[in-house]
């Protein structure tokens, strides 16, 4: 029970940090959106907590940022997309257990998560928002965000890995 409580509290903290990282450091884009560093926290949430807890921290924190930033129409899609990203990174330990170079495996799984983000937002804008191929306009900004956050997230992982509480959470 204690480990579950610790994971819930850690997920709440990471959700809040994800929302803050998404909202505080933003660069406006031509399409009316913005590039942020929230995905670095999404990657970190998935890596620290794994599976469902990492997915929930990533999804809730990112959706909350959308709601608080005036992009509430994106919040449901953001929740699903970021939760899938967190889940993908969270499954890293199981997917890449046999890989000796853990850094390369984390980078690969982070890249897969960012591809989910690119495809997810394109599909949401094209189909649900009815933008069709005009949704391609946001892909460049999302790709910049993906690369920046992939690099930043993977710089943070080895630093955070040294924290005893994180070592305990990851098992």
Outline the secondary-structure elements:
Layout: H1 2-24, E1 26-28, E2 34-36, H2 38-49, H3 51-68, H4 75-90, H5 92-95, H6 102-128, H7 139-160, H8 164-170
Antiparallel strand pairs: 1-2
Helix pairs in contact: 1-2, 1-3, 2-3, 2-4, 2-7, 3-4, 4-6, 6-7
Question: What are the salient characteristics of this protein?
Answer:
171 residues; Arp2/3 complex 21 kDa subunit ARPC3; two-stranded antiparallel sheet; 4% strand
Helix-and-strand structural type: mainly alpha
* C-alpha termini separation: 15 Å
User: Which CATH architecture would you pick?
Assistant: Orthogonal Bundle
Task: Give the class-level CATH name.
Answer: Mainly Alpha
Count the DSSP helices: 8
Would you tell me the overall average pLDDT?
91
CATH topology: Arp2/3 complex 21 kDa subunit ARPC3
Number of strands: 2
Major pleated sheet: 2 strands, antiparallel
Rough outline: globular
Rounded to an integer in angstroms, the radius of gyration calculated over CA atoms is 15 Å
Q: What proportion of the residues is helical, as a percent range?
A: over 70%
Strand and helix order: HEEHHHHHHH
Query: How much strand content do the residues show?
Result: under 5%
- Indicate how many domains the architecture comprises: 1
Give a quick summary of the entry:
The chain is mostly helical. It has helices spanning 2-24, 38-49, 51-68, 75-90, 92-95, 102-128, 139-160, 164-170; strands at residues 26-28, 34-36.
Task: Provide a descriptive summary of the structure in words.
- This protein is mostly helical and 171 residues long.
- The chain is 75% helix and 4% strand.
- It has a single domain (2-170), classed as Arp2/3 complex 21 kDa subunit ARPC3 (Orthogonal Bundle).
- It has eight helices and two strands, in the order H-E-E-H-H-H-H-H-H-H.
- The chain has a two-stranded antiparallel ribbon.
- Strand 1 and strand 2 (34-36) form a beta hairpin.
- Helix 1 runs antiparallel to helix 2 and helix 2 packs across helix 7 (139-160).
């Amino acid at each position: 029970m204690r480990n579950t409580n610790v994971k819930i509290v850690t997920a709440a903290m990471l959700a809040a940090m994800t929302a803050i990282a998404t909202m505080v450091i933003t660069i406006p884009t031509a399409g009316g959106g913005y590039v942020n560093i929230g995905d670095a926290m999404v990657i970190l949430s998935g890596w620290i907590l794994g599976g469902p807890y990492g997915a929930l921290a990533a999804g809730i924190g990112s959706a909350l940022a959308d709601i608080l930033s005036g992009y509430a129409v994106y919040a449901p899609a953001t929740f699903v997309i970021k939760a899938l990203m967190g889940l993908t990174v969270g499954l890293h330990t199981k997917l890449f257990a046999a890989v000796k170079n853990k850094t390369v495996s984390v980078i690969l799984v982070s890249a897969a998560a960012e591809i989910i983000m690119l495809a997810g937002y394109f599909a949401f804008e094209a189909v649900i928002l009815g933008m069709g191929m005009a949704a391609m306009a946001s892909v460049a900004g999302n790709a910049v965000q993906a690369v920046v956050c992939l690099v930043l997230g993977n710089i943070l992982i080895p630093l955070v890995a040294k924290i005893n509480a994180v070592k305990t959470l990851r098992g």
